[in-house]
Amino acid sequence: MPPPVSFDREQIVQTALAIVEEDGMNSVSARMVAGRLNSSTQPVYSWFKSVAELRRQVLVRAVALLGQYIARPHTTRTFLNVGVGIALFAKDHRELYRALFLENHPDGDIIREFHASINEIQDQDSRFTGNSAAVRRRMINKMWIFSHGLATLVCANLMTDDSADYILDSLNDFGSAVVAAEISRAVEGG
After folding, report:
1. CA gap 164, 89 in Å, rounded
2. Model-level pTM?
3. Nearest Cα to 54, choosing from 23, 108, 46?
4. Rounded to 5, what percent of the chain is helix, strand, coil?
5. pLDDT tens, 70-106?
6. pLDDT of 111-126, one tens digit each?
């Protein structure tokens, strides 16, 4: 009898990630992962107490991949790179974007932590350090809304032009308007 095939945690997570990329988060099950690995479900359950725990790990990996996108130097402006990275991630990894931002799941803390990291990026941008924390939060929240609106249209393949240049120009135009409006509002005492 041949020895039992054993899979490590990383192989199981990578397999689940591939399933999400192809078919969406709802397709991830112990049986589906085991089938892709030509195995029983035993290795899945030996590493993860539940499918929910495995799905959470997939979301953690998706956020890490998204982090790579927003860290790319699309421009010389770090904060603009965040929006461009989010939209390009939505274009390249539609199902992962859906799983992170468009599906109702109990792992909202992962997204809140990601959003907090975006606040930290903005706080380090010298163009915004002269503004109060309240002004910076209003700016980031408006940019969050626009960036994800644009990324959702890209994800849904509803943009006639989803090139990196168009995405960058759109975010730059909107972002410039938001920054100008918030600075003006702060000067006026709002």
Report:
1. 11
2. 0.90
3. 46
4. 75, 0, 25
5. 999 999 888 899 999 999 999 999 999 999 999 876 7
6. 888 888 888 887 777 7
